[in-house]
Amino acid sequence: MLVDYILVGQGLAGSILANHLINAGCSVMVFDDPLLSNSSKIAGGLYNPVTGRKMAKTWNADNLFGYLTDYYPKLQQQLEADFVNDIPIYRPFISPEELNEWMGKSADIDYSSYVQAVHNSSAYGNQVSDDFGGILLNQSGFVDTGKLLEASAKYLDEKESLTKGYFNPADLKFEEGYTSYQGIKCKSVIFCNGHKSLEEQYFGWIPLRPVKGELLIIKTEENLRVIHNRGVFVIPLGNGVCKVGSTYDHQNLDEKPTIEAKNVLVHKLNELVKFPYEIEYQLAGVRPATKDRKPIIGQHPEFKSLISFNGFGTKGVSLIPYYAKQLTEFLTKNKDIDSEVNIERFFSLY
Ligand SMILES: Cc1cc2nc3c(=O)[nH]c(=O)nc-3n(C[C@H](O)[C@H](O)[C@H](O)COP(=O)(O)OP(=O)(O)OC[C@H]3O[C@@H](n4cnc5c(N)ncnc54)[C@H](O)[C@@H]3O)c2cc1C
């Protein structure tokens, strides 16, 4: 069998990269062992242009959001599924100073397209604690990542481009002009294997810094029309079901829910919301984060037909589409990969 590219992993990175490569006229074979990682399956799926405790525009926001707001709706059409939810994020202010800061900042040309409204008094006071008002963000929402992965698997399966099972890098063979894996010949093998890369022989050296995260699924009678986000996010999935997250743990890197994380989430949730709710269940996964919080993309320093598409950390939903396009153009048009995300910045570690 002959394909242009083999992809290892069908999380968000593998799914979205496969879509870009297929749309560019390339053939792919994606290997995925569904038992190996939960990150993409359980993620909150938020895309949020203004993030962090200091509420700053997220890194590279103009490029990332300029592309993703167009890309996801098109992907929905192509996969014939419904997984994009373009709804505002509401972030209550914690002090009059924060309100003042945003009154000024929202007029700033750099921020104005991401701000729908700055409320100088309580706007959602029946749902959350927002005595000092809050900010309503634009170009935000969430992707139901579970549905996206399912639709992508179906699409790839119909094209006979998906193999469910473990990809064993030890079976790779490097021949003159091509690379082969268990009888499949290709130009390159692209590793979209998330935090599992650390256990893998070719890219185990890239500086990933995995972070475990946990979420709660709750049920409420309250009708939420925005995503509330302060300390935790509360994403309305429909029918009163909400996703609440998330936690950050660098030490314990299994994918099992813990009572400690549940307590942290409940505490933060109770500080934010005023409505009653019931906890349905809990989810856990490990994010493929990196030390400098930027993705790691490009060719292996020694085995040039091996490529890393990894390190999407806490923001895979916003980062992956833009960089899938960039990697596709690198492979098919010989265009450059941005130096800030290029694997070359870590070659000294190899
Ligand atoms: C609790 C939590 C909340 C999150 N919330 C958000 C959010 O709100 N917004 C956001 O943007 N991001 C969020 N994230 C982060 C997001 O999940 C990641 O950025 C993204 O999913 C990474 O995707 P990936 O495809 O690179 O990795 P993964 O999702 O880990 O996918 C890797 C895939 O490779 C497969 N694989 C690995 N090795 C092999 C092998 N040898 N053979 C076959 N298959 C293999 C795995 O089974 C898996 O399917 C969250 C993560 C967690 C844990």
Automatic annotation (TrEMBL):
It comes from the Bacteria. Coiled coil: none annotated. SUPFAM superfamilies: Nucleotide-binding domain. Gene3D superfamilies: D-Amino Acid Oxidase, subunit A, domain 2 (3.30.9.10), FAD/NAD(P)-binding domain (3.50.50.60). Residues 4-329 form the FAD dependent oxidoreductase domain. One of its GO terms (cellular component) is cytoplasm. Transmembrane segments: none annotated. PANTHER family: SARCOSINE DEHYDROGENASE-RELATED (PTHR13847). This is FAD dependent oxidoreductase domain-containing protein. It comes from Roseivirga ehrenbergii (strain DSM 102268 / JCM 13514 / KCTC 12282 / NCIMB 14502 / KMM 6017).
